[in-house]
Each structure stands twice: as C-alpha cells, then as structure tokens.
Write a structure and sequence with these properties.
By secondary structure, this protein is mainly beta. The two termini are 21 Å apart. The strands form two sheets. Strands 1, 2, 3, 4, 5, 6, 7 and 8 form an eight-stranded mixed sheet that branches. The protein has a six-stranded mixed sheet with strand order 12-11-10-9-14-13. The chain is 7% helix and 43% strand.
Length: 153
C-alpha cells in the first residue's frame, strides 16, 4: 500500500489529474478501494473502487474517466483505513489464531487489479528489522478489533 501513497490518479479520457492517493480501504479480506484527496481546496476525500483502476504504474494510477471517483458513502466508512486515521490498521499488533504475536502491522500487500490481499508486512521493532528484516505474513481470515488484529494462518 505504501508504494501507492501520494501517486496521482490520472484520467485516460482527458489526461486530467483527479487527485492523489491518501490511503487504502479494506474489509479484512480484500482492498475495496483507495481514498483520494482532490487537488481543489475545500473538497472532501473521494473513493476510487479497485475495479475502476485500469493500470497502476510507478508514477501514476490510471482510470478511464473522472466519473470513476465516487463520493464517500456510508458503506465506505465501514471499511478499515490501512495507513491513516484513528481506526488505521497500520501499527496494530497482529496475533495468530494460536495466540502468538506476529508483530506490528507495517503495510498491506495486495493485487491492485483485484484487491486481493497477498500478505501483511510486520515488524518486531527497528533493531530486529535492521538485523533480520521485516517479515511478510500470509493468512486466511483476518479479524480486526479496536486494539489488535487476529490472523488465521
């Protein structure tokens, strides 16, 4: 997810920049879409469904036309933000369903075309990260609470 943060959303129909990626929103199983900050002053964030993304490159995310962006609806507010807000997934302790701590969540890896979650990057602290590197954890079902997340391995 962090590789997409700040990327511009570009409309293929007119070349216009529609906004920039602020965060990803997911339900615990799939990434449903991206939170987009528009370049205009005093505008609310918009929602870009994963299905509306044509291509995601290193420099930009391409969509067919400006109508790909949607107003944030009540159903979008039920999704979990990955990196921003008080409800963010990043920084939560990730536990296995056996009760072992896997680490603190640092990032979510997902397939941009489908929204399918590939794995979760976790850290055991900066010293361990320097010595051993961060781990990528894969699992089946994810349960997210206010304080922690539990992953079925």
């Amino acid at each position: 997810m962090q590789a997409l943060m700040g990327l511009p959303i570009i409309s293929c129909s007119n070349g216009e920049e529609l906004g920039r990626v602020v965060d990803g929103l997911f339900d615990g199983k799939m990434v449903a879409g991206l939170s987009i900050k528009q370049p205009k002053w005093f505008t609310h964030h918009m929602f870009l469904p994963i299905s509306a993304i044509l291509e995601a490159g290193q420099a930009a995310i391409m969509v067919a036309n400006p109508s790909a962006l949607q107003r944030v609806a009540e159903k979008h507010k039920q999704l979990y933000p990955i990196c921003t807000s008080r409800r963010r997934f990043k920084g939560k302790p990730l536990l296995s369903n056996e009760g072992d701590i896997l680490g603190l969540v640092e990032d979510v890896y997902f397939c941009v075309e489908m929204g399918t979650i590939i794995g979760y990057e976790v850290t055991d602290g900066w010293l361990v990260d320097l010595k051993e590197g961060r781990k990528i954890v894969k699992g089946e079902d994810l349960v997210i609470s206010k304080e922690r997340a539990i992953l079925s391995l």
